[in-house]
Design goal:
It comes from Streptomyces violaceoruber. The protein contains eleven helices and two strands. By secondary structure, the protein is mainly α. It has one domain. The chain is globular and about 65 Å long. 48% of the residues are buried.
Length: 321
């Protein structure tokens, strides 16, 4: 079976598994990778960019290498190749768990239980929940849903279409390393530099596809594109900017502004500020539904693109024969 068809069948099966089951309950491979990366950090850490680059190479390179070996071992056994792709896609894609956590916070806000919403928010993002009121929590959730639609779904599918199982694994490894060491804490400002920059590069195509699909699927395409063009470049993240701006325009809300994390405060530009309104608790459900539509469309786009590329490559091989 051609590699493009393996990806098409496997990625589709993996996203169906995610929709039905959510993340694996026990022995999650991403959690195992995180523990291994933490052990590598404990050995390599110095306040030095070179050591951080070595950490990134060892962890991400090791994960991609192991995935490549596994894919190579089953490449002549189509059923196993599809099963490996499906299992990998299920492990690295987290759209259902993202929606579940967002809805849990939204449900607490809807019930008027602000303390329960604050207790649940850290499951979704790194904001300081005690510094947020109800609208602030709702905004944090919508922003997290937007950004993680790219990080937890679309970006993985893009790299899976490009590189198969190693692409799926590599993207999740890079994204996980960025979450672990890429933030600008005193310990990781220099050590995490390589992981943060690599994540920016790896996330670039998925973020733009996510923004485009949010504009197409959100019901307000002109507003989404306008917010994307006007405000995305003002965001400190080159990838979160387009995604959050497009979601803001698609949902008709304002995102960004002052954000509080543990021990620090960030003042970010407001996205869709002129045309949007403040986020409400009910907007969480709208964001989750938009995220699900974007994920489904991304699967279609990535599968179609991979099949088209495979068909073109097969035609060229026949022409040379």
């Amino acid at each position: 079976m051609r590699a493009d068809r393996v990806f098409a069948y496997g990625a589709t099966a993996g996203l169906i598994a995610d929709a039905l089951l959510g993340d694996p309950r026990r022995g999650h491979p991403v959690a195992g990778f995180g523990r291994a990366a933490a052990r590598v950090e404990s050995v390599l850490w110095r306040d030095d960019r070179g050591r951080g680059a070595l950490h990134t190479l060892v962890c991400a390179g090791g994960a991609v290498g192991a995935a490549a070996l596994a894919a190579r071992a089953v490449r002549h056994r189509p059923a196993l190749a599809v099963a490996l792709t499906a299992a990998t896609a299920w492990s690295v894609v987290g759209g259902t768990s993202l929606g579940r956590e967002a809805r849990a916070v939204g449900g607490a806000l809807g019930a008027g239980d602000l303390e329960a919403a604050r207790e649940r928010l850290p499951h979704l993002c790194g904001r300081d929940p005690h510094a947020l009121d109800g609208p602030g929590i709702a905004r944090a959730v919508v922003e997290s849903v937007a950004e993680n639609t790219s990080d937890a779904v679309v970006g993985a599918l893009v790299w899976g279409a490009i590189g198969g199982v190693p692409g799926l694994v590599g993207f999740r490894a890079v994204n996980t390393l960025d979450a672990m060491v890429g933030h600008k804490s005193p310990r990781h400002r220099r050590y995490g530099w390589a992981s943060a920059r690599l994540d920016d590069v790896a996330g670039w195509p998925g973020a733009r596809l996510t923004a485009a699909l949010a504009a197409a699927a959100g019901g307000r395409p002109r507003e989404a594109v306008r917010a994307w063009k006007a405000d995305a470049h003002r965001h400190p993240s080159p990838n979160a900017g387009p995604v959050e701006a497009a979601f803001a325009g698609a949902l008709g809300v304002r995102l960004g502004g002052t954000l509080a994390y543990a021990g620090r405060v960030e003042h970010r530009p407001v996205l869709n500020g002129a045309a949007g309104r403040d986020v409400r608790g009910a907007d969480i459900e709208r964001a989750v539904r938009l995220s699900r539509r974007v994920g489904a469309l991304a699967l279609g786009v990535c599968v179609a693109g991979r099949l088209a590329a495979g068909h073109l490559l097969a035609g060229r091989k026949r022409g040379r024969a």
